Amino acid sequence: MTFSPEMEARFAAMLLKYPEGRQRSALVPMLLYAQDEVGAVTPEVVNEVARRVGVDPLQVDEVLTYYSMLHRQKWGRKHLQICTNISCLLVGGEELWHQACKKLGIGHREVTADGEISLEEVECIGACSWAPAIQVNYDFYHNVTPEKLDELIDTMGKKS
Amino acid sequence: MLYNEPHPLEVKILTKRFGLPNSASIDTFLATEGYKGFEKALTMTPDAIINEVKASGLRGRGGAGFSTGMKWSFLPRNSPKPKYIMVNADESEPGTCKDRLLIEYDPHSLIEGMLIAALAAGSNLGYIYIRGEYRYLIDIMDRAIVEARERGFLGNNIKGSEFSFDCHTHSGAGAYECGEESALLESFEGKRGIPRIRPPFPAVAGAYQCPTVLNNVETFCSAPPILLMGAQAYAGLGTPKNGGTRLFCLSGHINKPGVYELPMGFPLMRMIEEVGGGMRGGKKLKAVIPGGSSCPVLKADECDVLMDFDSLAAAQSMLGSGGVVVMDEDTCMVKAALRIMRFYAHESCGWCIPCREGTTWLKKLLTRFHEGMGQRSDIILIGDLAKNMLGRTFCPLGDAAALPTISIVEKFTEEFEAHLEGRPCPYEHASQLVRA
Amino acid sequence: MADLVKFTIDGIAIEAAPGTLVIDAAKRAGIEIPSFCYHEDYSLQAACRMCLVEVEKMPKLQTACTLPVAEGMVVRAGTQQIATARKYTLEFLLANHPLDCPVCDKGGECELQDMAFRYGAGESRYTETKLHVDEAQWSPVVFFDAPRCILCFRCVRVCNEGMGVGALGVVNRGAVSEIAPNKGDHLECDECGMCVDICPVGALTSGTYRYKTRPWEMEHVGTICTHCSNGCKTTLGVRNDQIIRGNNRDRSGINGEFLCIKGRYGFDFYDHPERLQSPLLRTNGKLEPVSWSVALNAAATKFKDVKARGGRFGVIGSNHTTNEENFYLQKFARQGLGTNNIDHHRTGDVVTLLDSLSGTTGKLAASEDFYTKKAVLILGADLSIEQPFLAFQIRANKRHNNASVYVVTEKPVREDKIASASVRAEASGQLAAVENWRGALSGQTELLIAFGDSIKGDAVRELVAFGSSLGFPVSYCCLLDYSNSRGAVDMGLIPDLLPGFHAAEAGGMTAPEMLASPDLDVLWVVGANPLSDAPLASTSAFVVVQDMFLTDTAMRADIVFPASSAYEKTGTVTNVCGEVQRLKRANSTMGTKPDLEIMGLLGKEMGLAPVLGPWLPDTVFEEIRKTVRGYNVPLPVISTGGAAQTAPVNGRIPVANRPELIRSAHDTLFTSGTLGRYSKMLNSVIEKSDAEKSLQH
Ligand SMILES: Cc1cc2nc3c(=O)[nH]c(=O)nc-3n(C[C@H](O)[C@H](O)[C@H](O)COP(=O)(O)O)c2cc1C
Ligand code: SF4
Ligand code: FES
Predict the structure, then answer these.
(1) Interface predicted TM-score (ipTM)
(2) Ligand 3 probe mutation, C22, C33, C41, C48, most atoms within 8 A of CB
(3) Residue C343 in contact with residue C377, Cβ under 8 Å?
(4) How far apart are the first and last CA of chain B?
């Protein structure tokens, strides 16, 4: 299997980052970037990445199932991650979480029927001083209020 | 644009470039004494550099607070193996959000810190392990690395010297445990984030079993100023054996949460009252987590402490990662304990029995308890289970889960009793959400 | 050797070699430090935390399984703090454990039960819901019950490090961490069952044994595996004359903890529905069941008159029957029937090896040497597949002693992974390839050369010449197929060689010559199936067969005697390294008799008893010890289940070299000649892997 030219270029460069014979080091980042492009770590991705870094598919499974950002299941085009860890909890992260579940009609690690949006309650994302915080894919949103969250979800629905 | 307003009480050493127009660019950096500390180091012997860092009293900003100069001195200098510089930018300790800013606003100071460490260790290659969620930082860092190469601060014979060094970013993929140094190295090598049996420590057998300098982002960023202003001046900023400044991440129920650079040993109460703008809505202070969720909490009446490693140790807590989480009178401490334990149960790597089983057991127990289905005996059990993890686990994550739990259940026993006999959580009504 | 380190555990002064781990030193001093994840053969984990001890001047508790002893170290394992730590670690461990001991195969043999009994708390304070995962079947051999798993990672290590297979891994993290097979929902592996055997609890169980019995209802009989030539000890669990389990629970014997699928599960051929349980006599064209006396009388009468009229006998022996039986058979043929027409399926050129080593001593490798020699050269054999135990020894040698391994084979082999050098070469080119390594090998101080049937005749002589020219000690192992292939040669199942490699005064027909001879009068086959790949030329030949099954040869027979299996008799066998070991009778199958008894009765019927002597295994073995060169092995050793290597013959072997007769069957892990065809387990594994292959294309 092959990826987009940009991704192929990234992977080529990635493998060169590590000393000769240490290409296995590229495993975790390669899986994450591949997932970003494919939408999930599919069996094809597992085998392909295994081949490229020189390990067995089993070793990829071991790694894939360890890291919480890696997933076999397809997420929505927009993956909404709401932090409810201590700093966010103290300033209403949990209320935001319930609000999102209600509004989207889905729960933890679920995807909307149209496959557009997926939802995840996440651990501390490193935005504690600007809590409550959420992430949509890789974009941070700080000091989130119920109103901001509503808005955000409404705009997410629209294809962009 | 800054995430929060700076505060007049701040001492801006590491954050001096924060807020400058495109502060991340190498031009801004060079225009503000960038790479000057490194150029100074180029003229020094490795031992001289290490002694300078030792004398500065710099202690690791990742949590453990180990003397950085000491750590650097443990590297077997004459080992034939290659030596690596490894930056821990996994920043995952709840309450902590500082390394993020250092990379976002001042990536070159991190490169400069790595260069200085490389000179001290005789290393030619380094990596920056950045947590996967911080994707935008990887792009910023990559750009900075390219710039540094273009301007000859990375590559062969840097600035016409004998010294060659290069570095790369490396992305994690969501695992708190990969912040633990040996688990980080496993993860870096493309494996599950399971810690290693130590000794040997990374200084001796780190990345690819080669000698490795492994430090936190902020620790590396502190090296350039130390060389620039000199160990004495830097040490003078803080308290004895706790040199310099550090970035404190204030969060929770205060008016002006944010990341502020303050001298080591800055009083906690002033941090809350003045820097943090006081308690939100004039509420009363109930408790503070002084250094990230892994630390024992301080009750309001214990908060009269100086924020440095030794003072907090004396107060039976830890300075940890600098994440100061402030909780007011409306906070349910059972809920706090539960949420913290949920985190550790989710992040336990599963390798050793006490941590794997202890964290899930406590998570289930605290959930049940918070829902009002607890029994008096559970209150003892909570503390006892936590104590049975303490000091018996494979890595410090077990302790990190146990310490806050023990402190909460022991210091706020009455709140646990208030949840008994099916009574609803007395604090559920108090929504903490700020309405726009 | 470096001088010993002195330290104390619980006040007891102990000395141990530098580098020894506290947990091992303690064990040797008779102090038990409990552990789940520690296993002396495999990599360290420090995962279970059962072995925590106090060490003076160390603030935190230390894991004895990773802590090397140090001079003056003061260790405490018997304190209240340690007792508490163990107690609560077990409480944690049992929290999510199903506690289904009453229905668990492991009940009674479970390390978790024993630990809980010895170190555990009386009751558990766990009242939350337990995690549950359904049991899964990963292969015909391996079943996995996740909730019982304590994550000691022994199975992962034995599969990866011990077997070199790496079919097991760990997935997920935290409390839901789980052992996982390499193909998602199933295993593709050697099916050796090492993971099942090493599992301290009932998480990994075997398709053969699950839910069959309670361990204490079995009697445990340590005997020798009857499949390949490696001669592993296998301990058969027997209940009312049924073999229910095979393993090597006490880790005794040359193979220690090792067994492959054949030794562990391949015993089930014995109660195959097609097992012969009555003598058969051909009456008007059809083989009909008859009584022993009728069958014996018929055979004896025939033998007698063919002998009387100086007719032609052909006798073919077996690679599986005991030394006693083989010795008795050749004696029967030579002295009873007066013929040297006796042979067997030769699977390796032992004869030429012994001949070219004549005049030297100590040049025949023992199975132990595969683990201890600093360098090993594998010539023309897929060792992991054809000689599983020897391959296991080499992997351990690599892990523990960092031995150098050299490989010359036609196809890629598992040993390539651990080899310092490996090269592909046709049989004809293999010696040349070795010659090319003269330089590389010159750095070595000793070498073990194991060669398959690609090296025979003059090639063996050249190989030995090469070895002698290296200038350091070299030992050899001529690889063979079956459990007593070596014994068959030693006992003279060769026309021109008497037992112990003495020349027979006259030569005789080889097996192929017997089959090809148009005027053969009697063909007597004991435990072999020559007609499976060659027709019998003589249409008039009277064929007598002793076997467990109605083989192609038996179907052509006029009389068939139902024979006992190796697990149903006593006697000795000699493995590929010339090590003599004793069989113990585990069970019996109605209607069958051991081949030795059948021959004895036949001889008696013919009035040959005075010539042949009694057919008691011990008496025959005494005669072997007295008369067969190299077999005067110390009885105490073998009678206590040990292995005694036969001293190599010394002196030229006067034999016409017949390399063309030597042909290994190249049985795989899942095949084992006739026996394999009647093993349900082996066949189900083959079917499964065939099914997979067909899916892949
Ligand atoms: C469970 C656990 C998580 C950790 N997470 C981090 C982290 O996210 N970032 C970090 O710099 N150090 C973290 N540490 C500390 C590191 O193990 C290590 O001590 C530190 O990075 C060394 O750098 P320093 O000496 O500059 O502090 C963690 C430690 C543990 C036990
Ligand atoms: S290696 Fe050979 S002797 Fe050992 S168990 Fe397997 S088949 Fe039997
Ligand atoms: S035996 Fe030491 S931790 Fe398991």
Answers:
(1) 0.94
(2) C48
(3) no
(4) 21
